[in-house]
Every structure is written in structure tokens, then in C-alpha cells.
Amino acid sequence: MLPWKHLLRAVTVLLLTVAATLAPTAAAQADTAPSRGWNNYACKPSAAHPRPVVLVHGTLGNSIDNWLGLAPYLVNRGYCVFSLDYGQLPGVPFFHGLGPIAKSAEQLDAYVDGVLAATGADEVDLVGHSQGGMMPRHYLKFLGGADKVNALVGIAPDNHGTTLLGLTKLLPYFPGAEGLISAHTPGLADQIAGSDFLTRLNEGGDTVPGVVYTVIATRYDQVVTPYRSQFLSGEHVTNVLLQDKCALDLSEHVAIGTVDRIAFHEVANALDPARATPTTCASVFG
Questions:
Q1: Cβ neighbours of 252 (radius 10 Å)
Q2: How far apart are CA 124 and CA 56, in angstroms?
Q3: 3-class DSSP state for residue 1?
Q4: Where do the H-state alpha helices sit in 30-97?
Q5: Are 198 and 190 in contact (CB under 8 A)?
Q6: What digits encode the pLDDT tens for the residues 217-267?
Q7: The pTM is what?
Q8: What is d(CA 151, CA 196) in angstroms, rounded to the nearest whole number?
Q9: pLDDT digit string (tens) for 42-54?
Q10: Peptide bond before residue 226 is cis, with ω within 30 degrees of 0
Q11: Alpha-carbon span 104 to 82, nearest angstrom
Q12: Residue 83 near residue 63, CB atoms below 8 Å
């Protein structure tokens, strides 16, 4: 794809963000939508899948829309699946993940405690898309989450921030822009490569002991750039590039987390490595 087309996509993302934060939407709150079999607090984990799966949406996402593909996929495979809303801003319904990420991690902490209490499980597995694959690392590192989490699977996570195809480097040339973003959408400011939040998160290493990490990325990601910045270093880390599994997979940042069944197959493998099967282009039919 030509560079100007990449730039156009990135600008579109920024415009959507501004629209979401400045103009209230008439859409219903996500928690009023049907969940198609997940968020069932009567679900008891099975011997085959003893840990509930908590899904963590991305920026501008919510607990329903982000997971209309993956949640039923996992439910149909026998998992107890739950999803939360986090990072809400006052007066901005439906589009979440915009509040300070450290505060969002506190919301995840409380939510995991509720899932564990309801299901009787000792640990959960976390699966997150975009910010939802990175934010839990704050929970694991600073809020005691490592004692309650077996695995973290990040789908296109911005583990080391994003340059948004280089656009974030232009912010200093627009007086007041960085302050405006920090004041009105702190969750976005926290995700810019080099932010104070990310510096603290990654200081001393990417991982914490006792948690198994998987990162699933696509080379066509136009939001978390460069895409290799998504990968983690450390023990018990598996980094997966989707195109190494299927060169024909053209999923970008949104599709990899919402509709890509090849990525879903890799998620299932990460959640149950003892029963993992090879991921190929044919996994789209699985």
C-alpha cells in the first residue's frame, strides 16, 4: 500500500477518536446488548478448561462489540467467557478505553476478583485487543494480578506504544495538542510511544514471573506501529506474526481482533497449549 494511504488511515483513526470524545453518541450502552452466551455468571469452568477467560476490549471498544466474533468462538469450545467495560469518560457512552490506563487496570482488578468469586476458579486467563492486550500488564506488574492470572494473550497490543505511522512525532509542532489529548483522552496520551506511563510499565523488563504471555500481531497493522513494537521480551513469551501462519491473511488492526478466525485459532492454542493444533490458512474454517 502506498505511504499516503497509510497516512490517510491513521488520520481517519484520529478523526474517529475526536468524534467519539467530543460528540455524544445516541448508541445504547454496550452492557444492554445481548452477549450471545458469554458473561454468564452461572458458568462453572470444566476440567478441560478450568480457568475463566476475561476479554479486555481495545480503545474506543466496549465489552460487546469488540467480542462478537471471539467470545462465541471460545464459548462454543467450552470456555466460561467474560468481558468488561473500562476506561469510560463522562458523557461518552459506548466508546470506552479512553480514561487513564492505570485507573483502567484498577477496574480490571476488581472485575477479575468478581469473576473468580462467581466461578470458584483460582486463576483467569486474559485475552485483550490493542490497549486491552497492554493495559493488563499494569495490573500484573503493579496491582498483584500475577497471583490471579495464568496467561495473557495480546492481540495487536501496543506494548511499547505507537507512533501511529509517525504522526505522533508531529504533535510538538502543534502547540497545545499534547495537552489537549492528555486532558480530554488520557488513555490515548498514555499509549503514545515514550509516554511516562509506558516508560514505567516497561522499566525493568516486559514480563513478570508466573504469567505466560502470547502476542499475536499482523504486519498490516496501521494503528500500533511499528508492528514489531507489539512483541514482548522475556521468559514464557511467544510472539506470533499472523502472516507466518498464513501469508494470505491481510487483517489489519481492527480485523485481527474482531473477525479473524486464524487469529482466533492462535488464541485458542495459547489458552490450551496441551491441545494446540497447527494454525494455517485453513484455520479460517475451524
A1: 16
A2: 12
A3: coil
A4: 70-75
A5: yes
A6: 999 999 999 999 999 999 999 999 999 999 999 999 999 999 999 999 999
A7: 0.86
A8: 26
A9: 999 999 999 999 9
A10: yes
A11: 16
A12: yes
